[in-house]
Design a protein that fits this description.
Strands 1-2-3-5-4 form a 5-stranded parallel sheet, sandwiched between helices. It has one domain (about 5-230): Rossmann fold. The chain has helices at about 5-10, 20-25, 35, 40-50, 75-85, 125-135, 155-170, 190-200, 210-220; strands spanning about 65-70, 145-150, 175-180, 200-205, 225-230. By secondary structure, it is an alpha/beta fold.
Length: about 240
C-alpha cells in the first residue's frame, strides 16, 4: 500500500485532548510518569502529522520507522498508539500486568507498531543508525527513521559513536528527537544541539510543548545530513 501522512486524520480515534484520559487508565507502580509525559506532545505531532505509518500496514516496507529509545517511560507512547488505532484502548487498563502486552518497556513482538524492544538507555540511536543503513542498502530511500531519546540518555557513550557515524555517513533519512528536561548528568556546553551540529547534523531547538514549532522543525529540509530536533520541556522534578 501507499502510505501518506494525510492518512492520519482518518485513523484518529481520539484527539490530543483525550490523551491525558487515556494515560490515566494506566495505573500501578513504576510508571515513570514524568518520563512519559515529557514526550507526549512530540509523540502526538509525529504520529498525527509526520510519520507515514498505519495500523493496517505495520509490516509495510514503505513505512516510516519510529524507535522509542526512551523506552522506560512508554505510557504516552501507548496512549498515542491507542488513539491512532494500533492497539485497543481497553488494553491500557492492564498496563504492566502479568498478562498484559503493555509492559513497562515496549516489546516489538507484543505491541503492533512498535519497532524495537527498548528501555536500556543508549541503544535506540545506534539501532536507528543501523536501520537507516539497512534501508539504504536495500535501496529503500524513501522511508524515514525517527528515534526519540532523552537528554540524560545521551550520557551513554554509544550515542556519541552513533552521532559521529551518522553525520560522517550522511544518513539523510535518520532523524533524532531529544527530549531535553535538563536531566543529563553533566549538562551540555553550548546546548544539546551543538554536539549534533559538530558531527555534521542539521539541528533545531524548539519548545517541546509547541505543536506548530515541533512540526516546522520536524519537516525542515536537511539534504545530505541527518537531522536532530531538541524539544525543550520543563525540568524533571
Amino acid at each position: 500500500m501507499t502510505l501518506t501522512t494525510a492518512d492520519a486524520d482518518t485513523r484518529t480515534l481520539y484527539t490530543f485532548d483525550d490523551l491525558a484520559g487515556l494515560m490515566s487508565r494506566m495505573t500501578g507502580a513504576d510508571k515513570h510518569g514524568p518520563a512519559a509525559s515529557s514526550t507526549l506532545d512530540v509523540l502526538w505531532v509525529l504520529y498525527d502529522r509526520v510519520l507515514r505509518v498505519a495500523p493496517e500496514a505495520v509490516d509495510d516496507a514503505a513505512r516510516d520507522r519510529f524507535l522509542l529509545s526512551k523506552g522506560h517511560g512508554p505510557m504516552a507512547y501507548y496512549a498515542v498508539l491507542a488513539a491512532k488505532g494500533f492497539i485497543a484502548p481497553e488494553l491500557l487498563e492492564g498496563f504492566g500486568g502479568y498478562d498484559s502486552p503493555l509492559g513497562h518497556h515496549p516489546d516489538r513482538t507484543l505491541v503492533p507498531g512498535v519497532e524495537i524492544g527498548s528501555g536500556s538507555l543508549g541503544h535506540g540511536l545506534p539501532l536507528g543508525v543501523g536501520t537507516a543503513l539497512g534501508l539504504r542498502a536495500q535501496g529503500l530511500l524513501d522511508p524515514a527513521v525517527w528515534v526519540l531519546v532523552g537528554d540524560a540518555e545521551l550520557d551513554e557513550g554509544s550515542n556519541h559513536e552513533a552521532i559521529a557515524y551518522a553525520g560522517a555517513a550522511g544518513l539523510e533519512r535518520l532523524h533524532t528527537v531529544v527530549i531535553d528536561n535538563q536531566s543529563a548528568t553533566h549538562g551540555w556546553h553550548g546546548g544539546v544541539a551543538s554536539h549534533f551540529a559538530a558531527a555534521g547534523w542539521s539541528t533545531a531547538t524548539v519548545d517541546g510543548r509547541d505543536h506548530a514549532a515541533l512540526f516546522e522543525a520536524f519537516t525542515t529540509p536537511h539534504p545530505g545530513r541527518p537531522h536532530a530536533v531538541v524539544a525543550v520541556v520543563e525540568p524533571k522534578n
